[in-house]
Automatic annotation (TrEMBL):
<feature type="domain" description="HTH lysR-type">
    <location>
        <begin position="1"/>
        <end position="59"/>
    </location>
</feature>
<keyword id="KW-0238">DNA-binding</keyword>
<comment type="similarity">
    <text>Belongs to the LysR transcriptional regulatory family.</text>
</comment>
<dbReference type="GO" id="GO:0000976">
    <property type="term" value="F:transcription cis-regulatory region binding"/>
</dbReference>
<dbReference type="Pfam" id="PF00126">
    <property type="entry name" value="HTH_1"/>
</dbReference>
<keyword id="KW-0805">Transcription regulation</keyword>
<dbReference type="GO" id="GO:0003700">
    <property type="term" value="F:DNA-binding transcription factor activity"/>
</dbReference>
<dbReference type="InterPro" id="IPR036390">
    <property type="entry name" value="WH_DNA-bd_sf"/>
</dbReference>
<dbReference type="InterPro" id="IPR000847">
    <property type="entry name" value="LysR_HTH_N"/>
</dbReference>
<protein>
    <submittedName>
        <fullName>DNA-binding transcriptional LysR family regulator</fullName>
    </submittedName>
</protein>
<keyword id="KW-0804">Transcription</keyword>
<dbReference type="InterPro" id="IPR036388">
    <property type="entry name" value="WH-like_DNA-bd_sf"/>
</dbReference>
Amino acid sequence: MDLLAASRAFVAVARHGSFTVGAAALRIPQSVASRRVSALEEHLGGTLLDRSSRAVTLTPFGAGLLPAAQRLIRLADTLEHDAERARRRPFRLAVPAICPPAALARLVAAARAHDLHLDLSTGSRADGADGAAVIAVPPDVGVWVVPLGLASVAGPVAHVDSLRPAKADAGSTGRRLWIQPEDDVPHVRDRVIRTGAATGLRPAQIVLAGSLVEAAAEALAGADLLLCSAAQAADLGLPWAPAADLEVARGYDVTAGPRAELTLLRTVLRVPVGHCLGAGR
């Protein structure tokens, strides 16, 4: 016997003084309500309701047990409510600043389909034990890998050495290559600087920007280049090409937080997370 379902039937019939109305309130057939009350009476060892007249009334035994049945229902309802709140508790996830709002919105929607309610923030550190962060890692150990290339309003550039100033331009800095803050990490920044030095670029031609906006503005305003992903270049309306002599990529993983949520982000939600980072778009 389902003690909770039987108690609900008992309380509903007692409240409305009718099996028909009580069953309707519970949205179950009258016959089901009758069977549940009878099963509860047999289980408890006494008659709960007097069915001898048109209106159903409580017996002394039923009147004594009605408050307990009501408490049982309230406790069950509280348990279900608390369980729903626990399922909907926000899971804090710090994401890189490069993630576009539209992709983040699709990630949040996809996560909800798996009962994961994301509370997104921009940054690189998780907030507490119930949060996580998408962090930059070397691409060879990353769950998500985003190849980088060169974007320029003047057209695609396939080789870094094409930025090397001609001897006749000794007094000119030449075209610059802008590195945005997202790529100010050793596995990207250091490789770009080494490649630039090896191909004859002047130190001033490689610039660490203070923000993506600054770097993108310089690329949009003239002949300078922006080191970025294909997705970023598309969002900015800049022609893009991978640099044949500069094989660099962003790598990402998600760290901290409960293992179940991390696994979900790395597997089921891998594609929408990747779209936020610029992978697979």
